[in-house]
Here is the input.
Amino acid sequence: MEGSAPSSPKASSERWDVLQRDRIRSWMNQQLGKRRLGVIDLQTDLLDGLLIIQLIEIITNQLFSIRYQRNPNLASQKHENIEICLRYMQNEMGINTSGCNPQAISNGNINQVHFFSIFRVNSSIFSIYSELRRIFCDFL
Here is the structure.
């Protein structure tokens, strides 16, 4: 095309980041919609860990069995909730969360949100695994 400047790598990367965040938000809203919940802003709506807990419950089809702060007001309580979520995903769902920083998520670091694209894929695998396990357990 005449007159159009080539896209810089930084601009291309920023567009990719926005696209990824939109996909993650869309997937989260699809899941959370089952409970009439949703995410508008990934940077602020995940800060206290409560929507992440809801998401885990929806994906695993189980109530969250670990004690957490239900009304987190302090930064330390929000951080603790996210830490609990990440530990649960690692230990119970088999999702590698080693690159995630609970403090960064609770502070609204948008770069940590990309972790949820991995969570999206792994949760689908977890759902399939759980369903197969349920079917085979019923069969046996």
